[in-house]
Amino acid sequence: MEFTTQHFIALAPLLITSATIIVVMLAIAWRRNHSQTFLISVAGLNLALLSILPALKVAPLAVTPLLQIDSFACLYMALILVATLACVTLAHAYLGDGGSGYPGNREELYLLILMAAAGGLVLVSAQHLAGLFIGLELLSVPVYGLVAYAFFNKRSLEAGIKYMVLSAAGSAFLLFGMALLYADSGSLSFVGIGQALAATGLPSSLAQLGLGMMLIGLAFKLSLVPFHLWTPDVYEGAPAPVAAFLATASKVAVFAVMVRLFQISPAASSGVLSDVLTIIAIASILFGNLLALTQSNLKRLLGYSSIAHFGYLLIALVASKGLAVEAIGVYLVTYVITSLGAFGVITLMSSPYNGRDADALYEYRGLFWRRPYLTAVLTVMMLSLAGIPLTAGFIGKFYIIATGVESHQWWLVGSLVLGSAIGVFYYLRVMVTLYLIEPNLRRHDAQLHWEQRAGGVMLLAIAVLAFFLGLYPQPLLVLVQQSGLAG
């Protein structure tokens, strides 16, 4: 095929991210400098983010049979790049500079995060099973290294190995499912599969088995019940900025491609598969919330809560008509904001690096009297995750409930309400811990290095955004409406 200027404009976010990876690689080879690597990464990500605007003007455009750049892809590209930018800023604060920082090589962390982000960008614009697999592997493989980055910490190494083994199993299921789908439909493109499935009325048992196996592979990556067993251990073992990346950019990319696959092939979400998705959604909501109740480790608690949140998102996927795509967009944006804020607080509490992260709940006891700003941010994030009105999380939950009611999915709506009620309990428990009065405590805010200050400013901005979207969600709603799959 012939490449025109329009193709290059459409591919700009991915090309700029890839160029940044190469520049960072050469910069590390030339001279190790933590701050320099950080600044190059941030500059590249910001450029990639800005290049989405011209890309929107030429969208929708099929760039090769593998990638489709449209307004849907652009929204999720922007979300992944923003999340990556936040994680890179947190990583800089976390690794620290000078003698008090991280004892190993720092610069490769940025390289791995950028490579994973490039995989996410490929994934959200995939319109072909080959594109989906390439994007997924490019996203997953650097994350194995990221999770085990604190290699001298036994838990981090264990988490990296667990994630690698289970992720490989998920990829095997995914490939087998793709092979069965190809055998049945004779096509690897989403549209071709959709047409082949629609032509036969009900999908054949071979196609359903193929889609089912693909669903297992994607459910592993999204940590949906019963494929969630790796989640709490990996969240706990991974360095805090990496756990933030896993919870946000990584999962958003996988969920976006799942939405595209199910929306383009409506037959995929009919029959037995729809029932399976319903059961997985209810199980994820209930198990995620109930297991989070017993946690005394903040990272594990957020891990279990993310299982529940993707259970809520499955409700809109099962409904798959009316408000569904819009609801998923709104929910993912609000979820990313709140997860970044919560993991950001853990990151700033844990740095400069000293053995293990400050993720035990007792370390947050009376935090308000020591670090009032961080406490304010974490309080807003917990309220938002619980879906309390006047926060961004409430708008997301409201949309998901509206979608469930619109398509008469009463069992799913019931489980969402029950799950949210359980969720309020453990989120409030974290908040109460922050404000407990410890004896002999004097109120002061710890002195921060400049790289931590940058992280702190970003966290305050995230908290303000979570409030702003809760009070005035209109800009977000307009943005998501314009990026429907029809766009």
From TrEMBL:
GO-annotated cellular components: endomembrane system; plasma membrane
Example GO biological process: ATP synthesis coupled electron transport
Enzyme class per UniProt: translocase
Catalysis: reaction(s): a quinone + NADH + 5 H(+)(in) = a quinol + NAD(+) + 4 H(+)(out)
Enzyme nomenclature, EC number: 7.1.1.-
Membrane topology per record: Multi-pass membrane protein
Superkingdom classification of source: Bacteria
Primary location recorded for the protein, binned into one broad class: membrane
One Pfam entry name: Proton_antipo_M
Gene Ontology molecular function: any one: NADH dehydrogenase (ubiquinone) activity
Entry-linked InterPro entries: NADH-Q_OxRdtase_suN/2, ND/Mrp_TM
Subcellular location(s) per record: Cell membrane; Endomembrane system; Membrane
Keyword Transferase: no
Residue stretches making up the NADH:quinone oxidoreductase/Mrp antiporter transmembrane domain: 126-422
Chain segments annotated as transmembrane: 6-30, 37-56, 76-96, 108-126, 132-152, 164-183, 209-230, 242-264, 276-294, 301-320, 332-353, 373-400, 412-437, 457-480
Keywords: Cell membrane, Membrane, NAD, Quinone, Translocase, Transmembrane, Transmembrane helix, Transport, Ubiquinone
UniProt keyword Cell membrane, yes or no: yes
Family, per entry: Belongs to the complex I subunit 2 family.
Subunit comment: NDH-1 is composed of 13 different subunits. Subunits NuoA, H, J, K, L, M, N constitute the membrane sector of the complex.
UniProt xrefs under PANTHER family: NADH DEHYDROGENASE (PTHR22773)
Role: NDH-1 shuttles electrons from NADH, via FMN and iron-sulfur (Fe-S) centers, to quinones in the respiratory chain. The immediate electron acceptor for the enzyme in this species is believed to be ubiquinone. Couples the redox reaction to proton translocation (for every two electrons transferred, four hydrogen ions are translocated across the cytoplasmic membrane), and thus conserves the redox energy in a proton gradient.
HAMAP family: NDH1_NuoN_1 (MF_00445)
Record NCBIfam families: NDH_I_N, PRK05777.1-1
Protein name: NADH-quinone oxidoreductase subunit N
